[in-house]
Structures are given as C-alpha cells and as structure tokens.
Amino acid sequence: MSSFIISFLVYMEACIFAGIFMYLFRKKKLIGFQLGMNISQVMGGMAALLTGVLLIQQFPFHFTLITIISAGTGLAVGGVFGLLFDYQTFITGLTNGMIVGLMAPMIGSVVEVPVLFLWFIHGLFFVSFLAIYFSIQRS
Amino acid sequence: MVLIILLGCWNFAALRSIYRICQKKYVLFDDRFTMTLCMNTAMITSFVFALYVSFLFPSFQVASIMLGLGIGWKFGTVLKNPAILTGLYNGAMGGIMGTMLGVVLKNPALCNIPIESDAMIAANMYSLSLFAAGLHTLVMGLIRYSFTV
Q1: Least CB-CB distance to B149: which of A64, A71, A87?
Q2: Alpha-carbon dihedral angle through residues B22, B44, A72, A82, given to the nearest 10 degrees
Q3: ipTM of this predicted structure
Q4: Do A110 and B135 touch (CB under 8 A)?
Q5: Domain extents for chain B?
Q6: How many domains does chain A have?
Q7: Chain A residues close to B101, C-beta within 8 Å
Q8: What confidence tens digit (pLDDT) does each residue in B122-145 have?
Q9: Residue environment code for B3-20, b if the CB has 16+ CB neighbours within 10 A, otherwise e
Q10: Would the CA dihedral through A84, A85, A90, A93 be positive or negative?
C-alpha cells in the first residue's frame, strides 16, 4: 500500500476514536462498571493494534521506536477510556493496551499479504464498535 | 547484561513489596478489586521477567513460561478463591508474550526485520528492557496508589 493511504487511515482512526470518546462521555451515566471494563479493554487494545500494524507497514526500519510509540498509544487510549468510569477500569485498560501495543509491531512485520490483513483489522474494529454500540443501547 | 540483572532486581523489589501488602490485607478486598489486582500484576510482571530471562538464557525457552505460570500461581493463592484461575491464565499469557518478544529481538531475521549488526541488536535489547522496566514501575506505582483509595 502507498504511504499516503496509510497516513490517511491513521488520521481517520484518530477521528473515529475521538468521536467514540465524545459519544461515551455523553452516555457515561448509563454504563455500569462491568461494561465499562470491557469498553476500556477493547478500545485500548484496538488503538494499540491499529497503530502498531499501520506504522510498521509504513516505516519497516524502526522496530524499537514503533514498539515504544504503539505501547504509549495503547496505554494513553486505554487509560483515557477507563478514566470515564472508575479507577479499576483505568488500571485494566492501561495494562491491556500496553501489552497489545508491545505485541502489535511483531505481527505487522510477520504478515504475508498486508492489504488483506489491514482490511481484516478494520473490519474487526468496525464489528467491535457495533457490539459496543448495541450493548450500550440495551443497557 | 549487568544492566538487565540490575533492572530485574529493581522489578523484583517492587513485586515483593506489593506481595507483602497483599499478604497483610487480603481480607479487606472485594471480588472485583481482587480480580483487577491479580490480572494486572500477574500479566505485566510475568511479561517483564520472561523478557529478561529470555535475554539472559536464550536456550531455555520453557523456563521463562514456567516462571510466568509460577508468578500467576503465587499471586492467585495469596488472594484466594476466584483469583487463582485469573492469575494462572494471565501469567501464562504474559510469559508466552515476553518469550516471543525476547526471541524476536535476539534474532531479528525471524520477523523479517532488517537489522544486521550486533551493536544494533544490543542497543535495541537495552532500550526495550529499560522501557519495559519503566512500564512495570508505572503500573506498580498505580497499584500501590490504589490501596490507599
């Protein structure tokens, strides 16, 4: 994939995460801690996975720096989504995003067909967002 | 190698203090706090120690996974009932992930990472182990703060 498309995807995901955060900030009174723990885990893990895989496809020569950047992204996103609810959801989201961020550049550099894998990851992100949306509506 | 051993001693001291606090106060915790504590501590600690062990002894890969399992089992038995399963599962997962990262950094051709010289491999190893030790210190500080809340 060309580097323009990858940087466009990174920008698009930052906008999508900001939108989900605004939506959850309005609805946070309706969400209990059990659902909040799941939301912070899924959001931190997805942010770290997308950042690691997309950045290692674009810059394949900086493995260590990209590992540090994606771990920091997962830590920050999981922590911010967890701070909406509780202190324990904060710690859970932070740890889970950090672990997934340390692992994500490895699978990004191993994969054989990058375009198919990128579409699969975006489909996974969309499906998990739909699941979170319906479970918020139902609660 | 001396740097990695020093970082291991530092992380072990942090883990030891958390373990002492858990031994003293485990009656006070409810189910949810027990589960959070056990999950996060077992996962990050077994990750960091498996990373160090696979750097120091690259030929014993089973040893680091067994170390992760042991840490999870130890925390689970201190915190009693529902925590044993959580501790075992998360400790084993952190151990496997740390072993994978250590093996890939020792031999970057496994992952098609274009790093050739030995000096680059050593620099990557030291910077990532420093980063992991910093993350472990951060999570341990947050958990120690959560006892006072």
Answers
A1: A87
A2: -50
A3: 0.85
A4: no
A5: 2-146
A6: 1
A7: 102-103, 106
A8: 888 888 889 999 999 999 998 888
A9: ebeebbeebeebbeebbe
A10: negative
